[in-house]
Amino acid sequence: MFEVIYYSRSGNTQKLAAAIAEELGVRAVDVKQKKDLAKGSFVFIGSGCYANKQGKGLEELIKENNFKGRSVALFGTSAKGWGDEIKAMKKLLQPTGAFIRGSFHCKGRWFIINRGHPTVDELANAKGFACRMKNLESE
Hints:
The chain is an alpha/beta fold. The chain has a single domain, classed as Rossmann fold (3-Layer(aba) Sandwich). The chain is built from 4 helices and 5 strands. The protein has helices spanning 12-24, 58-64, 84-93, 120-138; strands spanning 2-7, 28-30, 42-48, 71-78, 99-107. It starts with a strand and ends with a helix.
């Protein structure tokens, strides 16, 4: 079972979440609407980058759920496209015993910077990432 949880202010990460969820055959859920994770699910967690950190609510989600031995995949968007939001989420997850299977990030539109991001190709790459993670889980 897969779950896709995200935080997005401008809609960039929401677009990635929707693409990933479509590939997995599930629904993407905003972290504001999700408190408890299904037992044993493989969780995809995504965020935009806000002052080099993940979005609000994700830290609470991680603290309030059992991640020991749980497979997790991380995804995100940022104006720089450097993946600082991924690093911040990894830092939160590492002490929980989560098994971080992989990550994906790309540029996101921020005001007039990076117009058109995430691109059609980046969304296709997000689907490809989800497919690879799905195949890892089935091994």
